[in-house]
Specification:
The chain is α+β, with helices and mostly antiparallel strands. The protein contains 26 helices and 21 strands. 56% of the residues lie in helices and 16% in strands. The strands form 3 sheets. Strands 12, 13, 14, 15, 16, 17, 18, 19, 20 and 21 form a 10-stranded mixed sheet that branches. Strands 1, 3, 4, 5, 6, 7, 8, 10 and 11 form a 9-stranded mixed sheet that branches. Strands 2-9 form a two-stranded antiparallel sheet.
Length: 847
Amino acid sequence: MRPSVLPWLYWLRLRKWPVQEALAGIGIATGVALLFAVQVANSSVTTSVERTIDGITGSSQFALTARAASGFSQSVVRRVQAVDGVQAAAPVVIERASVAGPDGTATVELVGVTSEFAKLNGRLLRSFGGVYGLQFGAKALVMPEPVASQIGVAAGDRMTLQVFGRSVPVRVAASVGRHQVGPLADSPVIVGSLPYVQSITGLGDRVTHILVAPRAGEESAVHAALARIADDRFDVTPSDNEAELIRQAAGPTQQSTGLFAAISLVIGVLFAFNAMLLTVPERRRFISELRLLGFSRSQLSMMLVFDALVLGAVASLLGLVLGDQLSRHVFHAAPGYLAFAFPVGHERIVSFSNIAIAFAGGVGATLVATGRPLADVFSRRSLDTDYRATEEPSEGVPRTVRRWLLLAAAVLTAFAMTVFVVQPSWTIAGIAALGIALVLVLPSVLTGAVIVADRASYATRAGLLSVAASELRANATRATALAATGALAVFGSVAIEGAHQDLLRGLDRFGAAYVATADIWVSSGGDENALLTAPFAVPPSLQALGRSDAVASARMDRGGFVDVAGRRVWVIARGPSEPAPIPSAELVDGSLAGATLRLRDGGAAIASVGLASHLGVSVGGNLRLPTPSGTVPLQLAATTTNLGWSPGTLLLNGDDYRRLWRSDDVTAVEIDLNPGTSPAAGHRLVQSALGPGTALTVETSAQRLARIERLSRQGLDRLSQISRLILLAAAIAMAAAMSAAVWQQRRRLAVLRMHGFDPGQVWRVLLLQSALVLTVGAALGALFGLAGQLLATRWVTLTTGFPSHFSPAFALAGLTFAGVSLVALLAVTAPGFAASRVSPALSFQGD
């Protein structure tokens, strides 16, 4: 048989069974879309930051980095440039800021550079400089078109830049897009000359980074010289260290979403595999027909593989298109909370591996599903056995096999529980074991449900229920596959969303305790400074409020980010008079009263448990903290959860922070009101004292809590997105599968019509058997999903350090069970209604 004949044979089969092939293609496309969308969402965050950092650092290999936002003296640059072996050294200012225009605000990375920067050959200067408007003497900024469009400005316009509690009007020199600067246009980077950026930030002659390019072969000597210059007052790191920090910061969230994405990937492949299996009976009959016509085994094998490749390729391409839309409109590329500390862009990055893995998954599922027809090619059965069959020959799983499957399910469930108690780091394996156990249990549970339904039909004389049970026995394999699809969808959704809700409850509890210490909060900026890390000088008008009859007290908070052992750590430093410096509900190890006393006395720190473990320090030991004054030892008085910041947190005494960071600037002011003054009145009082042109934000504790809760949900909403996508994929896959199952039952339905059943009775039989399959699958999935939630929540708590607390999601399980069952049942209603009107004469026809 010539290869050119293969398309013709495929077309013959496609013309005969177009509906089954289309439905199988829909199921495969759904699974591929799920695979692709999850991969793109999980890979875009770190890659976008890496591209931005690469554009800034260019050919430099090392960076001297300040340990405080205030930077260090620019005079250090001359010492670095004088080091033997240094080819180029460029001073840079990089600061978090926000810009405002007529249409809104945006968080940006403000970068100030000099002509020395050009020697590093970084894409940032090559792109934003030259003809695109960056002039080293100009008092203007160059910005990407997406940011300019977001806030409503263009070249020559004025906008307001807010940084360090300062509000400065600046001019836009140019806005550049992808056709000019490539991928950097999607990075939230605004560029200006170093002197101008130093002026508008108030840094004077200080810089935050010095990028260094050593000559080839002299890297070690240059690094040693840089360490001597730094003298433990600032850090010497690889120039791309920021990219490594974002990978670490995104790690726990990526692990969390990766855990649940692994579930969704397995479910997606299963959807595609089940969809392919829908066409198996017709394929087997077609193979038997060709065998009768004299086709050889090798020719039939070639034809089956060709058919699978065509169906898999077309459906996978459709799935990639659908997945592309899902990744654009359903999944957010960047969790917003990472923008507190990193230049996270909104670029959606699709790699070749994303496409290849999703495409291969769809094609692979079709190839695996050809196993059954291939077995018929080499079968010794009579050639016309399958050709004359009116249904799928399989009558389900034999009783002995079901017993072995139950035993295997029990072993897997025991393994999952062992993971919960002994080794939480194996949670992915534990949840996978639960998912496999769920599928292994289904044949026995479904068989039992059919028996119960059959007996109930005799007891209640419900004849149609008995007929429905009989039809399920005749199609037990397909019924099990349908139930498994629904069960896994509910299992994955309950486990994911249940753990997500547990995490949000923990974060909300911390947020409520954190903001409850004051009636009014004053800070710099908006959402980009939700963690209160941007310093500002306290204005005299705010200091004068302490003499107001409405104000009981005002406390100065300090803090920021500091890089500790490869992690960007959130430092919270509240004054000695703070009533509750340690959130009691988040304490993991240590005495609350003792730790509070030591923190107020100074010289001590409270670390998140994950950070303490990473540093190898236990309660009572010394933690070495890098500061602008040098690395200092602090006694670890207690450990807490990570308070919602995955790289780790440190609680310090505010006076210690002011001394070690050598700055009187604060990051927040907490104001307590006297009795009789409402929060609204206090808010108006503070806002009036600051004046209308202030760059500071005034919030009541309720407003601040609402902001924290909104941002915490924004940062973790991908878990809900994955959960919803699983349910959406399940609804599509089950609708396709059940519609195909109805279509393939037409001759059996015709037999019922021949025996006197009217169309309404046949339709009710179809609905009854569908309802039975859905109920068994969804209920079992909900039960296993609660166990998966328990595993996932414990993993999140112990592995990532988030303040998560388990509470069984019974309501969620019930709603998911009901929703999946209802949607799938509604989906089968229309095709079932049409199939119930099949002509009785079809029972006498060959296929």
